[in-house]
Amino acid sequence: MPAAPRKILHVDMDAFYASVEQRDAPELRGRPVVVAWRGARSVVCAASYEARRFGVRSAMPAMTAERLCPQAVFVPPDFPRYKTVSRQVRAIFARHTDLIEPLSLDEAYLDVTRSFTALPSATATAEAIRQAIREETGLTASAGVAPNKFLAKIASDWNKPDGLFVIRPSMVDVFLAPLPTGKLPGVGKVMRSRLSALGVETVGQLRELEAARLEQLFGRWGRRLHELAHGIDEQPVQPRRPTLQISSEDTFAQDLPLAELGPAVRQLAHKTWASYLAERRREPGRIARTVVLKLKTANFRILTRSQTLPLPPASAQDLAAIAWALHERVELPDSTRYRLAGVGLGGFVEADLFTAQRALFDAQGAPLPDGATDSASA
Predict the structure, then answer these.
(1) What is the H or E stretch that residue 272 is in?
(2) What is the per-residue pLDDT across 58-87, written as a single tens digit (0 to 9) for each?
(3) What average pLDDT does this structure show over 204-227?
(4) How many domains does the chain have?
């Protein structure tokens, strides 16, 4: 017998950062609110729905937002406060299931196939969660209900803000067919253009291409496209996705030469180290061995330089020294100016395995298999 369809929710807070600001400052309600630092280099973290009517969107330059909506109220972001609210929301999720996969502070997947509550359906569960969020936080959330993750994410956006949309298994084919291919996860501008060249504009048209043909054209991604076009997504909700990288970055008020980036790199290293210590408290069994320096030039070229170490950094000062040393491997002219820098930690390994491996190689007098390897990309 085939397995019963899973019951997946995607819950997405509505204009989260801006909504928190409007909740906590009644004078902002009904006004176009933009969460961003003001300045030539700042970008929009969030925009209220009142601001979105003017075309303001997350990640656009703050100066563009100000031009589109001169009457907007700019509020600097307060991430500790947003994290506090996010924890409240996740506590509400946890009353219903332990299969919770956070994507960010304001959205998550939940698998409620086997819910903790006696609610009769996934739809009822989604409604209960939305009601609890409204009552306990004073905020609204939109939710999608579907038999898999990618459909649930599409559904949560269908009736925003403060909406609920359900895609039942029997609806999948009819629902997907007229959608533009850009609604499928991973199909961006480039892939849309390539599909359009094949005469494929909708998911229904994509469905007409055989899996073998798509695989021939796009490799393994072609097989994934075929599955998505048919509403197939077997990826489970992963409650604890392992951290791959921790980083901090900053855009400068004005472009700087490489030689003047030292103080910024050291400051970013300390921020990254604080986040790394918090991650170690959450997952003490994993350590990071790769240090990454990221730079963005004035003409938006991105460079990364990294080093994987035989021993992980021992302190914020250690991380800062290693990160700054990586700037010596940047081979651009001295006249190059940089608008952004970032410091990251990656290359996570299991601490017990690393300790055992190191003891083995120390006993043999040999270096670790990948001791002190370097990599660079631009």
Answers:
(1) helix 262-282
(2) 989 899 999 999 999 999 999 889 999 999
(3) 91
(4) 3
Same domain (yes/no): 154, 288:
no
Residues 206 and 190 in one domain: yes
Residue 327 DSSP code: G
CB 229 within 8 A of CB 177: no
Which long-range contacts (C-beta less than 8 Å, at least 24 apart) are formed by 137-142?
Answer: 137/23, 137/85, 137/88, 137/89, 138/23, 139/13, 139/14, 139/16, 139/19, 139/20, 139/23, 139/85, 140/13, 140/14, 140/19, 141/11, 141/12, 141/13, 141/14, 141/89, 142/11, 142/12, 142/14
- Is 239 domain-assigned? no
Question: Which pLDDT tens digit goes with each residue over 319-341?
Answer: 999 999 999 999 999 999 999 99
Residue 135 lies in a domain: yes
* 219-275 pLDDT per residue, tens: 888 999 999 999 999 999 988 767 788 999 998 889 999 999 999 999 999 999 999
Give catalytic residue positions. 107
Distance CA 8, CA 145 (A): 6
Poorest-pLDDT segment among 153-162, 281-290, 320-329: 281-290
Whether residues 137 and 47 share a domain: the answer is yes
Q: Is residue 113 part of a domain?
A: yes
Tell me the three state secondary structure of residue 333. Answer: coil
Range of the domain at 262: 246-377
C-alpha count within 13 angstroms, C-beta hemisphere, residue 169: 10
Spatial contact of 286 and 344, defined as CB atoms under 8 Å apart: no
Rounded to whole angstroms, how far apart are CA atoms 25 and 27?
A: 5
